[in-house]
Design brief:
The complex is a heterodimer of chains A (306) and B (534). Chain A contains twelve helices and no strands. Chain A is mainly alpha-helical. In chain B, 32% of the residues lie in helices and 19% in strands. Chain B is globular and about 70 Å long. Classes of the chains: A mainly alpha (306), B alpha+beta (534).
Chain lengths: 306, 534
């Protein structure tokens, strides 16, 4: 197990290097540069050259890249090109926790609601409840999150004034963005839970448990859910990935000062160091989420060993 | 060892989830209450060092926290700020400013003439290469020498702690006072700047304006508190809260939900808001010192090298119709380049009025009728107005000249680079808003052949001569006459095609009183006269 973990974490290094290189090249070969954006309508070739030199943007790309990687290896991600008084490490420290909290809340909400609905639908197969849930699932999967966001803001923030339109900090600020981010994962998790539970319900050992006289709840908790959990856990892991990428839309719509919004601003301003660091962080994050999902399999199914 | 493995797997999974879920403290929410005024910043300010504050967010913050020698009032007239009054020598080249004796830095220290001199020398420091030196100091004697390494600005003299003298360069004296009223021409608290090192502006400001920096939570908000010692009287507000909201639609929705007190209205929402019985009453509309223009680039699109072709394009665009139908009468057709809010506005000038027949004739004369190669117009993506103007202009050019016009949408960084390189776009649609209310902020920058911002590569010796003479003109009226000649020449040469003059549309809550507006900046003057009466 430890060897396996070490191997998987070790794989991160080439992965991160590759991602850093790709994004570095993409950034530098895309038209536009941070200095032009920064100077805007005060552009002056002399000032621009001075600024480029100050930021080291006039050095050969190889030198810039190796310098960045060498520093990043010591977790020093350099300075933001747009505001050189800001260290990129500080940007990540301030914004990443916000994005993670948002994603974690969305996944937690999706897991609770999704598994609940899925099991309910499976148990009441072909009932009106099941059909309504199925309808909801289709809606959840097919309506894009920016539409969900617009509708929720219109009703809950503008019409009924129950929650703020945007912003971050107070608990009331969490409700709408979390709901938007959780909508599609709820649908996914419901669908998978329903299918998985339904399948397990037809197994012989469930029939045996029932014939032993075990109450329905105990059967569900002890036999059904445990055996149906594997695909559900995978889906929840995927939901985390969805919530983190979904944040790129949701943080902008709800004006949340998280890492995704900052990354988008950085891309538009060509703030290379921030973009590169954001990509590194997201790559690491996705790898670790996948790892967590894989590791949880072993916990849930004794037949899986690493 | 199966159990161990299972337990360990669970621990690892739980630890990873916990690490993801448990982190992140809440950021302070924006508060509400009497004396608190809330208006958004459109983006994270890249700096709040006034001499590098060239975007709207850092410009707004600079304006609220700092003091200039002179300023503009609501009607665009020059008014005293840090200076109580000033004398001008008979030859118009020596300005002596008498400073107010009650201007205090936020640290409590009194502002003296030495502070002004130190600040302006820092602004011109060639090692810093500030973004605003060229604008403010161009006419100050000794600026060129400072750029070449002479320490200090010889043209600025401290007569005594309350008297500051500027000696101007006769060649570039034009608009000196207007340039001093530029929001970035401010005095800085030397102690704060020098002790703070790089990023000195992150935690505190070096200003002497009505408000001071309380906190800057990056990407989230900036909070300013009132300085009761402000020299024009303590502000009525206790605090100004400026949440950073990047999306115009979100800003508007936050206003509607009562989270903001003052916002700009996106053009797309203007008609809806105007028609809304409640919001319509909260709408304030007034002219903005901005124009939208089409830039023909002769370096990339060869036919534009012939002035007749450029003129044909200008004549083929019905500006009045664009103003009326595309901008629903909210904007005014632009016959000239410099907008009405600027002192000396060329009123009554007709420019090139819409005349498709004449346009056709000019094309034929140039031997280009029916032979124009396809044209691509790049659009500045920063404001929707530019795209709306471009779409309408393209349709008119197609119809009236038969030229195959297509539009290029690009993102801002790309657009900016393309314009600056001058060898990328065949033509572009963009806008220009005043930094300070003066003719030079338009003609000297956008069309003078040596300006780095002459993105249409206009190089007319006659135009340059008019501008040079305007800058050396001994009186304002002589200067204005010369600028009008330059402007008319550029319009008739169709070096650029002005399309419309724009307006500001702001939404202001009824409980906000005393807001003063301006055609420049973000449309408002420092909030020291604003009060919130809920």
């Amino acid at each position: 197990m430890i060897r396996y973990l070490a191997y998987r974490v070790g794989l991160l290094i080439p992965l991160l290097l590759g991602a850093a290189l790709l994004i570095f090249l993409a950034g530098h070969y895309a038209p536009g540069d941070p200095v032009q954006v920064l100077l805007g309508d005060h552009y002056n070739p002399e000032v621009a050259a001075h600024k480029r030199h100050e930021l080291g943007l006039d050095r050969p790309l190889v030198v810039q890249f190796t310098a960045y990687v060498a520093r990043a290896a010591t977790l020093d991600f350099g300075i933001s090109y747009v505001n050189p008084a800001r260290r990129v490490g500080d940007v990540v420290r301030e914004t990443l926790p916000i994005s993670l909290r948002l994603a974690a809340l969305a996944v937690a909400a999706a897991a609770v609601v999704g598994v609940g609905l899925g099991v309910w639908a499976a148990v009441l197969r072909r009932s009106i409840v099941d059909r309504l849930i199925q309808l909801g699932v289709i809606a959840g999967l097919s309506v894009p999150n920016f539409v969900v966001a617009a509708v929720l803001v219109l009703w809950f923030a503008l019409r009924w004034r129950l929650f703020p339109v945007a912003g971050w900090g107070a608990p009331a600020n969490y409700v709408l963005p979390v709901a938007v981010l959780a909508a599609a994962p709820i649908a996914y998790i419901t669908r998978i839970s329903r299918a998985s539970v339904q399948q397990v319900l037809t197994e012989d050992y469930v029939r045996t448990a029932r014939s032993k006289g075990l109450p329905g709840r105990a059967i569900l908790a002890r036999h059904v859910l445990r055996n149906a959990a594997l695909p559900i856990v995978t889906t929840i892991g995927m939901a985390f990935g969805y919530a983190i990428t979904g944040a790129f839309v949701v943080e902008v719509i709800f004006n949340i000062p998280g890492m995704a919004r900052v990354a988008i601003d950085a891309i538009l301003q060509r703030d290379y160091t921030v973009i590169q660091t954001a990509v590194l962080v997201y790559t690491a994050l996705f790898t670790l989420i996948n790892l967590a999902v894989d590791v949880s399999y072993a916990a849930l199914n004794p037949r899986i060993r690493y | 060892m199966f159990v161990n493995r299972q337990v360990m797997a669970l621990i690892v999974a739980a630890a990873l989830c916990g690490a993801l879920a448990g982190v992140g403290g809440p950021s302070p929410a924006t508060g509400q209450g009497a004396g608190v005024f809330r208006t958004p910043l459109g983006g994270e300010p890249p700096t709040i060092d006034p001499y590098f504050a060239t975007d709207f967010a850092s410009g707004d913050l600079t304006f609220l926290m700092y003091t200039t020698l002179v300023g503009f009032d609501s009607s665009g007239r020059l008014v005293p700020e840090g200076a109580r009054s000033w004398d001008v020598s008979p030859n118009g080249l020596v300005y002596t400013f008498h400073l107010r004796d009650n201007v205090m830095f936020h640290s409590g220290r009194k502002v003296t003439a030495a502070d002004w001199k130190w600040s302006f020398e820092r602004m011109g420091d060639p090692a810093l290469k500030t973004s605003v030196a060229d604008v403010v100091l161009a006419g100050v004697g000794g600026f060129d020498a400072q750029q070449k390494g002479a320490g200090g600005l010889a043209g600025i003299t401290v007569i005594d702690p309350a008297t500051l003298q500027f000696v101007l360069n006769p060649e570039a004296r034009g608009g000196f006072l207007n340039r001093l009223a530029y929001y970035a021409a401010v005095v800085l608290d030397r102690d704060v700047v020098e002790r703070g090192g790089q990023g000195w502006y992150e935690k505190r400001d070096a200003g002497s304006g009505p408000f001071m920096l309380r906190e800057w939570v990056h990407n989230d908000h900036v909070t300013l508190t009132a300085d009761p010692r402000y020299f024009l009287g303590a502000p009525n507000l206790a605090r100004v809260e400026l949440p950073i909201v990047t999306q115009a639609a979100t800003r508007l929705a936050e206003y509607q939900a009562g989270q903001l007190d003052l916002v700009q209205v996106p053009l797309a929402d203007f008609q809806r808001i105007q028609a809304d019985p409640a919001l319509g009453k909260q709408l304030i509309v007034f002219p903005r010192a901005q124009f939208i223009w089409l830039g023909p680039n002769p370096r990339v699109y060869e036919p534009f090298r012939d002035a007749r072709v450029r003129r044909a394009f200008a004549l083929a665009i019905d500006k009045a119709k664009i103003a009326r139908t595309v901008f629903f009468g909210f904007y005014q057709p632009a016959a000239s380049i410099v907008p009405p809010g600027i002192p000396g506005f060329y009123s009554g000038y007709k420019g090139l009025s819409y005349d498709p027949a004449q346009a056709k004739k000019l094309l034929a004369e140039a031997g280009m009728d029916g032979r124009l190669p396809p044209l691509v117009i790049a659009m500045n993506p920063i404001a929707q107005d530019y795209q709306m103007a471009a779409e309408a202009a393209a349709a008119m050019l197609k119809e009236n000249l038969g030229v195959d016009v297509s539009l290029q949408r690009t993102e801002f960084a790309n657009f900016q680079q393309g314009m600056n390189r001058r060898t990328v776009f065949q033509a572009f649609m963009t806008g220009w808003a005043a930094d300070y209310l003066d003719y030079s902020d338009y003609l000297d920058l956008l069309l003078y052949s040596k300006s780095p911002l002459d993105r249409v590569s206009y190089a007319s010796p006659a135009f340059d001569r008019f501008v040079d003479e305007a800058n050396a003109a001994p009186t304002e009226s002589a200067r204005t006459t010369l600028y009008h000649k330059a402007e008319a020449l550029a319009v008739e040469d169709a070096a650029m095609v002005p399309i419309v003059f724009t307006q500001f549309a702001l939404l202001k809550k009824p409980y906000v009183r005393g807001l003063q507006t301006t055609p420049a900046l973000s449309g408002w003057l420092r909030f020291n006269t604003v009060s919130v009466e809920r």
